[in-house]
Amino acid sequence: MPYVNIKLTGGKEAPTPQQKAELIRGVTELLQRVLNKNPQTTMVIIDEVDTDNWGIGGESVTERRKQK
Amino acid sequence: MPYVNIKLTGGKEAPTPQQKAELIRGVTELLQRVLNKNPQTTMVIIDEVDTDNWGIGGESVTERRKQK
Amino acid sequence: MPYVNIKLTGGKEAPTPQQKAELIRGVTELLQRVLNKNPQTTMVIIDEVDTDNWGIGGESVTERRKQK
Amino acid sequence: MPYVNIKLTGGKEAPTPQQKAELIRGVTELLQRVLNKNPQTTMVIIDEVDTDNWGIGGESVTERRKQK
Amino acid sequence: MPYVNIKLTGGKEAPTPQQKAELIRGVTELLQRVLNKNPQTTMVIIDEVDTDNWGIGGESVTERRKQK
Amino acid sequence: MPYVNIKLTGGKEAPTPQQKAELIRGVTELLQRVLNKNPQTTMVIIDEVDTDNWGIGGESVTERRKQK
Q1: Is residue B60 within 8 Å of residue A25, measured between CB atoms?
Q2: CB contact, 8 Å: F8 with chain C?
Q3: Distance from the CA of D62 to the CA of which of C38, E40, E50, F17 falls in 20 to 30 A?
């Protein structure tokens, strides 16, 4: 019955549907392996966040990407 | 003053504006009826999630819909 | 398959287990009635928040309760 | 290491990238000033919510905006 | 830079610190393997939820556990 | 009408009620200054997270604190 929310950068950096499926499968298996949680009721939601809307170190990821 | 967040599948499965309004009204009334919470300060946010980004039973909802 | 998160004040203002059960049942029925969502996979999580940790109007709920 | 999530109305009311950058910088500085939190590991995520999907006082923000 | 939130039942069902560490390590490795995300900035937060506060199928997990 | 959620480490590292009040006031003022948001309807929720339950760099904050 666990609920998992994964937030990662979207847009050009967004994962493909295959990669998303791999994340969903992987985290569901992890919860089964470590805590014996039932995969049938494990819920996973992936949020793709625009790099303008994600900040770290006091600046947006958009700005950080430019500086590299 | 309660805060409610409702996540449901979007895209083709997204609710209409009328259905969203009904959810907002319904959950606000529920909190007033059960806990006497003030409707004026009850906040509700609805997130529509792409079926690729929602997993249950270790696979995405997109995959599950195909199998039916 | 909807996911609902309800945040409300805890401590002395916390709902009883019966009231929580009523919220869970009520919001699950609302999603079934309005959007025909399957109750078996509707997940509801209630968070009880300390009044020191909840702010509105720029001050904590603890402060607001004192002023009344 | 704090994590901050800011939800505000999007669409026509969405902040500009400059305003978002100002929010990210401002909240990161606030956490450093008040709690001495390391800005390098402070994470901020801004969610823009459609006015149809945001409810207060039992009705959507879209409806409230019309009434004014 | 991903952010992951895992919610699971707490109290008697709460994971041990070792199990939590295994979840944190496992999900961080998964994001590195699938999406090449930097583990150093991957943040994971685990929330333990009381069984009274978690609902599925229209009833609390506390109630469901009794029926078995 | 913005909603802000701040997650930070709790337990021995938890902020005092005064510090929490300062965070609530500060973030509410920031949203008013940058986006002209109405402070009366700005909601702030602070979550204090146990260091066992917070991971970064693939390990819990509890582990990281020991290594210093």
Answers
A1: no
A2: no
A3: C38
